[in-house]
Input
Amino acid sequence: MIESQVESQNFIGGEWFPADSGATLDVVNPSNPAEVIGTTPDSGAGEAERAVGAAAGAFEEWKATLPSGRGAILTKAADILESRTDELAELMAREVGKPMKESRMEVGRAAAIFRYYGSEGWRMHGMMPPSTRPGVQVSSVREPLGVVTLITPWNFPLAIPAWKLAPALVCGNTVVIKPASQAALSAAAMMRALKEAGLPDGVVNMVTGPGGTVGDALVTDSRVKALSFTGSTSVGLGIQERAVGKKVQLELGGKNPYVVMEDADLSDAAAKIAFGAFGYSGEKCTASSRAIVVEEVYEQFMDELVEATKAMKVGDPLEEDTDIGPVVNSDQYEKILNDLEKARNAGRVVLEGGATGSADEGYYLAPTIISEVDSSSETAQEEIFGPVLAVMPARDFDHAVELANDTRYGLTAGISTRSLRYAHEFIARSQTGLVNVNLPTAGLEFQVPFGGNKESGVGGREQGPAALDFYSAWKTVSILPL
Ligand code: NAD
Output
């Protein structure tokens, strides 16, 4: 069991500090809004500037540390995180309402990411192709960029910081991270694990506070060489304009389609769509928020979908069999209820969800399924980030692909089919960075590139070997021995 109240502070130069003003932000338990589970500093630009100074001061020594030595620290941090699985999973369940089974998997994934990039310390492959000039040896090696800013959302409190921190650090960069305030307690736990693993002071720093002040100071500081952001499309695209002269990577929103063809296993497809749409209340950038079903099996599929959805348990995220906990906070709760109002008018309500009780008892929302949604409606076009699924009929495969691509987003897409032709054509024609055949849109593997196209992602992929490309610069060396 974790302590009932958890305090997070800014982590600068290896020490913990409150905000200069002493002000704090409450982290409220979404299952019980009367319970403040912890606080985090309500910092300003000054704290952000000091954190960048600490990171800049630590850079040369960290750059000179052998990559295998950097990797060994990451591997040790992985062990520390894993040894605290129950404690950290419970913290996430109380901090953001993530169901325990998903929270536990997330701790495991964060540890695996640290191990994966830890082992990169022994590889960090460069290249040495044959030179085109006689007698010359030409090669290219990776160099760190310098100070890197990481800005993260609340929905994956450990995994997203992990998949940015681990490649940034193994490449030899120093870091300032600004987590979402709602997820700051988990981020602080990650800072503690890295310190205990032996990370030198100043190599990683954390500052919490409002995006508009702390985040903006980290985006505009000229000492910061690169910026990796995960969050909403509107905030991300605004940041891109202000991060002048920096290498920028943005992972943004999604409106992910899942196509069901006439030859699909309908009950398998329904289970995968229900999991993708409603698991963790649909609060995943990879959530399936649009199901596109060919007319031939439409009604039959809807019956399966309603059944699969009803089998999911809405309840306390601390209970092991819960699939859908509360949504993260009162703002999201109100926004989703408002979106639901519009969704009811955008099609036919097949499963009526919405508030299960009063907000004082937790921000619980049951799943809603809306059928025959017009693809041009707001319900089909805008990210709701809640347990709401829009279903659309398609005449045939071509129409299904057209509907799937009819969005400004391009993160992930899925299809249920037994046909290799449908599967391969869908893979080729889908305008997304990730495609899943007979697998949910939600869920990813950290050893392969991850990211979106169109307005879902800008500036290169995260995870797998692709992350090393973002967090390093190639230095090409030509030598002619005389
Ligand atoms: P958000 O955009 O509101 O906030 C993300 C982070 O940006 C937070 O740390 C916030 O404090 C900070 N921020 C806000 N305004 C800022 C500013 N002006 N300057 C600098 N920083 C600022 O997003 P959120 O509500 O925390 O997360 C949900 C969103 O994240 C959804 O849209 C979801 O799709 C997206 N997301 C995307 C991915 C992906 O990999 N594509 C993964 C997870 C979440």
